[in-house]
Amino acid sequence: AFFASKVEHESKQCSSKGFQRLGSSAFDRVYTANQNCGHAYPTFLAVLWCAGLLCSQAPAAFAGLMYLLVRQKYFVGYLGERTQSTPGHLFGKRIILFLFLMSVAGILNYYLIFFFGSDFEMHIKTITGAISPLLLIP
Questions:
Q1: Which GO terms describe its biological process (predicted)?
Q2: pLDDT tens across 103-125, in order?
């Protein structure tokens, strides 16, 4: 909602009429940042859901909240210079990777239980719980 309101605000600030807004770099930056966030959101939801379901809910929820804050940082950084959005982008990629690895660990644990009868769920939850605070390091 914040991103959409920023796009609407910048759109109203443009003096040109119609869908084509030529020469408005502020609108272009806001619109591009909104599109980038919108395109990354389905991937985030998928890995968040899989990590919480297959591995551990608490670290997945923490990583999800961190991701939302990082996307806010990315969006605000994109409103300035494009290079200011790079730390938020890289930080977001790291959180998505963490959630993806949690999902893979949960899937591997399922197959270890199914084929070998070995359950490493407690070990995986301990490791992900210990690693999730490391996401705070920029």
A1: leukotriene biosynthetic process
A2: 999 999 898 888 888 888 888 88
* Residue 95: CATH number of its domain: 1.20.120.550
Of 122 and 62, the structure prediction assigns the larger pLDDT to 62
Q: Which amino acid is at 54?
A: L
Place of tokens 């994109």: 78
Q: How many domains, in total, are found in the chain?
A: 1
pTM, two decimals, is 0.76
Report the candidate in 37, 23, 32 with the shortest Cα–Cα distance to residue 67: 37
DSSP at 133: G
Q: Cβ neighbours of residue 70 under 8 Å, at least 6 residues apart?
A: 88, 91, 92, 95
- 9-27: average pLDDT: 59
User: 5, exposed or middle or buried, with CB in 10 Å at 0-12, 13-18, 19+?
Assistant: exposed
Domain hosting 131: range is 1-136
